[in-house]
Specification:
It comes from Tropicimonas sediminicola. GO terms for molecular function: acyltransferase activity, transferring groups other than amino-acyl groups. The chain is an alpha+beta fold. The chain has helices at 11-19, 26-35, 80-87, 99-108, 149-163, 168-184, 228-242, 255-263, and strands spanning 4-5, 46-52, 58-65, 69-73, 91-98, 116-128, 140-143, 188-192, 198-207, 211-218, 247-251, 267-282. Strand 2 (46-52) and strand 3 (58-65) form a beta hairpin. Helix 1 runs antiparallel to helix 2 and helix 5 crosses helix 6.
Length: 287
């Protein structure tokens, strides 16, 4: 099944297709809403290609962001020769998607042996916000402020090293821009105790009117084991629910994170692959 480039006229049909598969399409949906389907200069702007059935109905979406990440929603799979044709010459930094689809694309692009800094099939969780449980406590959630920036950059550096397996040097280089971007979007929140001391941070890394994707959840070492992460996420989702959001999803980076999210109502629904290469991989056309 061949791919064709998406145009602006395809935006509504792409959104309808992705919305029906939202739990594994949040990056694609968010980028589509922000930038359309034709790419752009922003790192998250995404050039999309479409698969259609014989009758013309959309049945697959493949994207590559300006930052170099391949995003997949290909329920029926794709021919390796087609994938390599579409992505020929691209420098790929990573592949993100439902694990069965992302791993198939990885193999089709002959990237199975490419060294990776992050190579995880993480548990995928979702939650209908009507079923959200907020743990009781005296800590409160507030929006991150410019005065918090230095602390948040330090936390983000630790997060990138622990969770994404960045080197310390890469984390130091990347963290300021990440924090500034989250603060500009108004997506970064801090949990603080009754004395005003920050205990944890949380954010949304994809935001849609009906659904959010949680990310950047971090508690410093000295505050761990006290339930701060789960309360921060729950309080953030409570605010989102009040604003009309109906559903949330996330990936869990380990057993402790899974327990925290299950405690506030999340159900595991599958696995999502986060594959980030050590170096960009150039895609060559099939022989």
């Amino acid at each position: 099944m061949e791919f064709r480039p998406a145009t602006l006229h395809d935006t509504a049909s792409i959104d309808t297709f992705l919305r029906a598969r939202s739990d594994t399409s949040m990056f694609l949906r968010s980028n589509l809403r922000a930038f359309g389907p034709c790419g752009g200069k922003a790192p998250h702007a995404t050039r999309m290609w479409l698969q259609s059935e014989a009758g013309g109905a959309l049945c697959g979406v493949l994207g590559i962001s300006t930052a170099g990440f391949v995003l997949v929603q290909l329920p029926g799979g794709a021919e390796p020769v087609e994938l390599r044709r579409v992505l020929c010459g691209a420098e790929i930094k990573g592949i993100l998607g439902a694990s069965d689809q992302a791993r198939a694309v990885q193999q089709a692009l002959a990237l199975g042996a490419a060294p990776a800094k992050l190579d995880d099939d993480e548990p995928l969780y979702s939650l209908d916000l009507d079923h959200l449980w907020v743990p009781p406590g005296e800590t409160r959630l507030r929006r991150a402020l410019p005065s918090d920036r230095d602390l948040l950059i330090n936390w983000r550096e630790e997060y990138l090293v622990e969770t994404i397996h960045f080197s310390p040097e890469e984390a130091i280089e990347t963290a300021p821009g990440d924090i500034d971007g989250m603060m500009e979007r108004g997506a970064l929140m801090l949990l603080q105790d009754t004395s005003g001391t920050p205990c944890a941070m949380t954010s949304f890394n994809a935001i849609l009117p009906d659904m959010v994707q949680i990310g950047n959840v971090f508690t410093p070492d000295e505050k761990r084991g006290q339930g701060h992460a789960r309360r921060a996420v729950a309080l953030h989702l409570e605010r989102a629910r009040a604003a009309g959001v109906e559903r949330a999803m996330l990936f869990a980076s380990g057993p402790a994170a899974s327990r925290a999210y299950e405690a506030i109502g999340f159900d595991r629904i599958g696995r999502f692959t986060l594959l980030i290469f050590e170096q960009p991989q150039t895609i060559c056309a099939a022989a």
